[in-house]
Amino acid sequence: MLLSLVSSLFLVAHAVADSRYTLELTWAKGSPDGFERDMIFINGQFPGPHIELEEGDWAEIIVVNKLPFNTTIHAHGIHQTNTPWADGVPGLSQRPIQPNDTFTYRWNADTYGSYFYHAHTRGQIDDGCYGPIIIKPKAGIAKPFDKIAPEDVKLLEAAEARVTPLIISDWRHKTSSETWDLEVAAGLESAVCVDSLLVNGKGAVDCWSREELTKYTNPAVAPVLQQANLSMTDKGCLPAEVLATLFPSPDTNLTALPSSVFDVCTPTQGSREVIKAPCSDKWMALDIISSAGIATFAVSIDEHPLWVYAVDGHYIEPLKVDALTLANGERYSVFVQLDKTAKNYGIRIASLALAQLIDTTAVFSYDDAEQSYGNGSTTIESEPSINRAGDNVTADVIFFDQAEMVSFPPQFPQPAPAADQTFLFSLVTAGSSYRWAMNGTTYDHAIDNSNPPFLYQDPHAITTAGNLTLTTKNNTWVDLVFHVATTGQPPHPIHKHSNKGFIIGQGEGNFTWNSVAQAAAEKPENFNLVSPPFRDGFVTPASATGPTWLAVRYQVVNPGAFMLHCHIQSHMDGGMSMVILDGVDEWPEVPKGYMN
Ligand SMILES: *[C@@H]1O[C@H](CO)[C@@H](O)[C@H](O)[C@H]1NC(C)=O
Ligand SMILES: *[C@@H]1O[C@H](CO)[C@@H](O)[C@H](O)[C@H]1NC(C)=O
Ligand SMILES: *[C@@H]1O[C@H](CO)[C@@H](O)[C@H](O)[C@H]1NC(C)=O
Ligand SMILES: *[C@@H]1O[C@H](CO)[C@@H](O)[C@H](O)[C@H]1NC(C)=O
Ligand SMILES: *[C@@H]1O[C@H](CO)[C@@H](O)[C@H](O)[C@H]1NC(C)=O
Ligand SMILES: *[C@@H]1O[C@H](CO)[C@@H](O)[C@H](O)[C@H]1NC(C)=O
Ligand SMILES: *[C@@H]1O[C@H](CO)[C@@H](O)[C@H](O)[C@H]1NC(C)=O
Ligand SMILES: *[C@@H]1O[C@H](CO)[C@@H](O)[C@H](O)[C@H]1NC(C)=O
Ligand SMILES: *[C@@H]1O[C@H](CO)[C@@H](O)[C@H](O)[C@H]1NC(C)=O
Ligand SMILES: *[C@@H]1O[C@H](CO)[C@@H](O)[C@H](O)[C@H]1NC(C)=O
Ligand SMILES: [Cu+2]
């Protein structure tokens, strides 16, 4: 009996792991910004422990669910080549991990770079369930470092080997399920108003003065506020009344909102992350990762340009910038040259959302002659490149521009010149301001509990999800065209599981064509099929003044049931997700014993 149990365990594909991690999830009191609430810890830590792998390793990640609710863990950006059952999406690749259950994820770290793992059940990212994944590149792989500093290539490689994650997030004093319940009760997307921003799990509630709130109020929202005779709230938020006018909904009931959600700001002491920069290393590498629930950030380090050398875990021709825009789920790997006076410099993070003025500062601390890292103080004495609203303070501040990013090496990878199949999505709110849809139909969370999960079903027979599933054939090229159909939508950071895709075009106005080929024939200036950005997140342009669109092309190479969704947690929870059944003609057979 024991013998057969042991041998059947070993029949599971790739039972031999190169790297094994156990992640125990618990629900306990924590106060990352100085305010105590219930939250998720991983092995007692927040954020969770670093998972460090070598390119080519088989990883084994054992998740022990000590939470009082179901969960799953998704490795964001990991391809899951030939392991679609380890993708961590409830109802698609597995059944939820129930309280006191364990689930083991085994996957190959087939490409180097910066990734992260996070809960993929409802809004649990907003409860703190995430941690970084670092995959060290194989020896001998081509790197673009000579374009940064030819004389320092060895130092840059050494800095890359020591890379430090900088996980940036937003944080609320309500749990994700309380936030959802409030949205339902108020008929309003109250998740837009957060309490603090965190860097590596540290921050504080920092209430701005009325003068600052007035000074930094975005000119785009000023007229709306003026018309309502209102101003940004003490928390820096657009008042709920104004949001309710911008996103009218039959079920709006603002009396259901406690004043702490939009209005009252109560400062906390909190704490500040200090990144120690030893001058003697000459260069430092940071993996900047957004695990945000809602906000898009501007990120900058005072007086230090950032050399962006990889985006979403993929090398690019390095770009030297002063600041970058960081959307939910994105990763930027940057080098910082340690060539300035030893003292504390500010790492400035500001939300770019129109719905809230909020920022935070972490410390980039040089050692001094006595190796005492900024002399033990966290006082910052440096000149910012961006202000509290995330705008450049002078005209010469350079922001990372995705349109300029080119893969390295440049000849690889390349999109096919034409697609075999085109899907057109019409992104809208559906019925209420907190309900969203990828294409008219909001995601049905009953799918989370589908038994068996989609991957275990005949893909041709999956009908339960109605308008929410798409099918593709293996080894074909697919165009995804996202049409932001209504005015006033924020950028949507769309994430495709398993694949990276090429962002081949974008524009303003309605997408009135049937295919990219037609559109590109008429508007070649809106497309780049030669050296397009290659990413696993695709941010649609905001539709501030009218409709916009974004076109993405990807190759189906890994059959399985994968999610396509907005990475804003309240949009995903509100239904902005669909399922792509990739490669239905080569549907995989799941190793025996994998299903939970
Ligand atoms: C999980 O196990 C612990 C310890 O055995 C027990 O106290 C708790 O009730 C269990 N929780 C659930 C949801 O079964
Ligand atoms: C606008 O609001 C202020 C302060 O709340 C109030 O004093 C003023 O009367 C209001 N003006 C109008 C036109 O309602
Ligand atoms: C609005 O919310 C309040 C507070 O929760 C509740 O008492 C009231 O019944 C709600 N009104 C409607 C119309 O649902
Ligand atoms: C470092 O701190 C010590 C004690 O607080 C102080 O005497 C000294 O002047 C500081 N050095 C620098 C370089 O600021
Ligand atoms: C910020 O940059 C833009 C574009 O370069 C420029 O037009 C603007 O004047 C800059 N803002 C400030 C305050 O210098
Ligand atoms: C989106 O909805 C429209 C209208 O129902 C439909 O024609 C189209 O095929 C849908 N697109 C996708 C990708 O499902
Ligand atoms: C938790 O997962 C189990 C197993 O899939 C499912 O039966 C149950 O309904 C789930 N609970 C919730 C609240 O979704
Ligand atoms: C699919 O969308 C169409 C058009 O919006 C709608 O009539 C139909 O009810 C939807 N089907 C499902 C299963 O949601
Ligand atoms: C986009 O299409 C909608 C619906 O067909 C139409 O009402 C709107 O005027 C169009 N907008 C533009 C900018 O063409
Ligand atoms: C799917 O297509 C890719 C790309 O051609 C190929 O590498 C892979 O082996 C195929 N998968 C299956 C299961 O046939
Ligand atoms: Cu969205």
Automatic annotation (TrEMBL):
GO molecular function: copper ion binding; oxidoreductase activity
Gene3D superfamilies: Cupredoxins - blue copper proteins (2.60.40.420)
PROSITE patterns: MULTICOPPER_OXIDASE1, MULTICOPPER_OXIDASE2
Signal peptide: 1-17
Alphabetized InterPro entries for the sequence: Cu-oxidase-like_N, Cu-oxidase_2nd, Cu-oxidase_C, Cu-oxidase_fam, Cu_oxidase_CS, Cu_oxidase_Cu_BS, Cupredoxin
Limits of the Plastocyanin-like domain: 26-139, 164-367, 459-583
Keyword annotations of the record: Copper, Glycoprotein, Metal-binding, Oxidoreductase, Signal
PANTHER family per the UniProt record, alphabetical: LACCASE-RELATED, MULTI-COPPER OXIDASE
Family: Belongs to the multicopper oxidase family.
Record's protein name: Multicopper oxidase
